[in-house]
Amino acid sequence: MAGSGAGPTLRFCPESNDLLYPREDKERRVLVYFCRSCQYQEDADPKDWCVYRNEVQHTSREKTVVLQDVRSDPTLPRTRDVRCPVCTHDEAVFFTSSTEEGMTLYFSCCSCGHRWRDYV
């Protein structure tokens, strides 16, 4: 079943009628569709080769929500190697964020909740 160029289409094996899955033929460096039930495979049409990148843009308000109460997040790492500039407590939760300017390290004091950042 050839693609029409209007978007991705499902392809089915002519032998087993099972769905064909994409994979790279590393030797020939082409995209092929293969059947998981039998040995059937077919080359993908080059006009159907599509690699895309989906970048999600966040508003400043969405980023603020992420920074709200990170102290209670058990998945974030903690450090005792920094001192809060407000209360001088020595434990903080930290995480990184990549921006156009570079990498930024965010801290949130485990005692008073003050947030600050360090540019890496």
TrEMBL record:
<dbReference type="GO" id="GO:0005665">
    <property type="term" value="C:RNA polymerase II, core complex"/>
</dbReference>
<protein>
    <recommendedName>
        <fullName>DNA-directed RNA polymerase subunit</fullName>
    </recommendedName>
</protein>
<keyword id="KW-0863">Zinc-finger</keyword>
<feature type="domain" description="TFIIS-type">
    <location>
        <begin position="80"/>
        <end position="117"/>
    </location>
</feature>
<dbReference type="InterPro" id="IPR034012">
    <property type="entry name" value="Zn_ribbon_RPB9_C"/>
</dbReference>
<dbReference type="Pfam" id="PF02150">
    <property type="entry name" value="Zn_ribbon_RPB9"/>
</dbReference>
<keyword id="KW-0804">Transcription</keyword>
<keyword id="KW-0479">Metal-binding</keyword>
<keyword id="KW-0539">Nucleus</keyword>
<feature type="binding site">
    <location>
        <position position="13"/>
    </location>
    <ligand>
        <name>Zn(2+) 1</name>
    </ligand>
</feature>
<feature type="binding site">
    <location>
        <position position="35"/>
    </location>
    <ligand>
        <name>Zn(2+) 1</name>
    </ligand>
</feature>
<dbReference type="InterPro" id="IPR001529">
    <property type="entry name" value="Zn_ribbon_RPB9"/>
</dbReference>
<dbReference type="GO" id="GO:0005730">
    <property type="term" value="C:nucleolus"/>
</dbReference>
<dbReference type="GO" id="GO:0006367">
    <property type="term" value="P:transcription initiation at RNA polymerase II promoter"/>
</dbReference>
<dbReference type="GO" id="GO:0006283">
    <property type="term" value="P:transcription-coupled nucleotide-excision repair"/>
</dbReference>
<comment type="function">
    <text>DNA-dependent RNA polymerase catalyzes the transcription of DNA into RNA using the four ribonucleoside triphosphates as substrates.</text>
</comment>
<dbReference type="GO" id="GO:0001193">
    <property type="term" value="P:maintenance of transcriptional fidelity during transcription elongation by RNA polymerase II"/>
</dbReference>
<dbReference type="GO" id="GO:0003676">
    <property type="term" value="F:nucleic acid binding"/>
</dbReference>
<dbReference type="InterPro" id="IPR001222">
    <property type="entry name" value="Znf_TFIIS"/>
</dbReference>
<feature type="binding site">
    <location>
        <position position="84"/>
    </location>
    <ligand>
        <name>Zn(2+) 2</name>
    </ligand>
</feature>
<dbReference type="GO" id="GO:0008270">
    <property type="term" value="F:zinc ion binding"/>
</dbReference>
<keyword id="KW-0862">Zinc</keyword>
<dbReference type="Pfam" id="PF01096">
    <property type="entry name" value="Zn_ribbon_TFIIS"/>
</dbReference>
<feature type="binding site">
    <location>
        <position position="87"/>
    </location>
    <ligand>
        <name>Zn(2+) 2</name>
    </ligand>
</feature>
<dbReference type="GO" id="GO:0003899">
    <property type="term" value="F:DNA-directed RNA polymerase activity"/>
</dbReference>
<dbReference type="InterPro" id="IPR012164">
    <property type="entry name" value="Rpa12/Rpb9/Rpc10/TFS"/>
</dbReference>
<feature type="binding site">
    <location>
        <position position="112"/>
    </location>
    <ligand>
        <name>Zn(2+) 2</name>
    </ligand>
</feature>
<feature type="binding site">
    <location>
        <position position="109"/>
    </location>
    <ligand>
        <name>Zn(2+) 2</name>
    </ligand>
</feature>
<keyword id="KW-0240">DNA-directed RNA polymerase</keyword>
<comment type="similarity">
    <text>Belongs to the archaeal rpoM/eukaryotic RPA12/RPB9/RPC11 RNA polymerase family.</text>
</comment>
<feature type="binding site">
    <location>
        <position position="38"/>
    </location>
    <ligand>
        <name>Zn(2+) 1</name>
    </ligand>
</feature>
